[in-house]
Design a protein that fits this description.
The protein has 3 helices and 7 strands, in the order H-E-E-E-E-E-H-H-E-E. The chain is α+β, with helices and mostly antiparallel strands. A hairpin with a 2-residue loop joins strand 4 and strand 5. It is globular.
């Protein structure tokens, strides 16, 4: 039973990696076909690694170590007419296997359109609730936030969103999600 679940998880990871590789190959092919003009970069790699360094005090708690908890690897490309596409893979620990195994899945596969103060997003995109908390504080939580711990929504979902920034300190957004995470 556990072997069958492990095989299913491995097949899902392989399919996800294949999809991301095809997406990146298509984007890089498009990048090479452009003229050699001096313009602002149309594409960028996304690499974020979240780790921790920890140590205990005293004989009771003498554990020391460094952990890589989660990594985001992806690519973003700006198309014509203020459109952009973005694909991000999330690599993290699984609760089903021991500490040294990692799982990977698609975090974002989205298209965005930004004109002036209006932004429209569609696809598998990040929801705004967790990003708002982190930007407000300026830090990422070490532990799971209250919303994440008690499943008051997921950090990414298949959805459509619209956001408008009235001023630098007032903005509004609305999102329609399918709720599957």
């Amino acid at each position: 039973m556990l072997l069958k679940q492990y095989r299913n998880d491995l097949e899902t990871i392989l399919r996800t990696n294949l999809l991301l590789a095809i997406l990146l190959a298509c984007i890089s092919t498009t990048t090479q076909a452009q003229d050699a003009k001096t313009e602002e970069p149309k594409s960028k790699a996304i690499v974020q690694v979240f780790g921790n360094l920890h140590t205990g005090f005293g004989a009771e708690n003498n554990k020391r170590g460094f952990g890589l908890e989660r990594s985001y690897l992806g690519y973003e490309y700006k198309l014509e007419n203020d459109l952009s596409i973005k694909g991000v893979m999330d690599i993290g620990k699984s609760s089903n296997v021991d500490d040294y195994h990692r799982i990977a899945y698609i975090k974002n596969a989205m298209i965005s359109w930004k004109t002036g103060n209006l932004t429209l997003n569609g696809g598998l995109i990040s929801t705004t609730q967790f990003n708002f908390q982190e930007k407000f504080r300026g830090y990422r939580y070490i532990m799971k936030s209250f919303q994440d711990q008690y499943k008051f929504g997921s950090s990414a979902d298949l959805d459509l969103s619209v956001a408008y920034e009235f001023t630098g300190w007032i903005s509004a957004d609305a999102i329609i999600v399918n709720g599957k995470g």
